[in-house]
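Render this sequence as a predicted structure.
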Amino acid sequence: MAQSPALDTIGAFARTIEDAALLADVIAGYDDRDPGSLIAGRPDLLALTRSAPPLKPVLAFVRSSVWDRAGEDVRAGFEEIWQALGNAVQEIELPDIFARVHDWHRTVNMAELARNYARYFDKDSSALSDRLRGLYEEGLTVRAVDYIGALDAMAMLNGGLERIFVRFDAILTPAAPSEAPLGLESTGDPVFNSIWTFCGVPALSLPLLAGSNGMPIGIQLVGRHLYDGRLLRTAWWLQDTILNSDAESKSAARGASA
């Protein structure tokens, strides 16, 4: 069910990074029934995920323009990640133009939502929720020139990201402003995801931290466009590095208490 073809993304939820790679291998590849698929051979993501990086990966830590939305648990958790990774992570700032991404994202999303949900609205608008009707009506107000301009911005922003990925293996950033919410009423706030969805680059979340409620805090890794396998391999390395660092800290603490 299409909402915004320029933004809709098919991904994988899995227990392990290997399982995610295995599932992605199955759903990836060219499909002549899907105008959004790339004419390319099917990747072997699982094999690349399991391979050792030729060099120690270096990550670019990005706060982005929405860092002020990050909660205390997230900020404290990333400080621990920074200490664990040492010189394998460097903080960088995105160009100022990236601060406009969320506005462009909403422009594209609302315009395409209105286009794709029109048949449901025309058939029986009362069957839609109040929130969905509001989003549909907002989409009707988007000007064509703003929509086209937002689409044009995608290529411009990816040009800026390419310069980052020349130096770094992946971008490190929060997956969400807080730990996962309790209950099933909400999936949380996607504000830290929107920028990467808009640019169409691969991203994944690893639940390597925990918040004050005991719920996971996601660490998000973002990779170069079409370099999904390299991102999965970097995620595998990051997970091992963090878990090994945590094990060493616990061992040292036990030794000190003894």
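Summary. Residues 71 and 178 are 5 Å apart (CA to CA). The mean pLDDT is 91.
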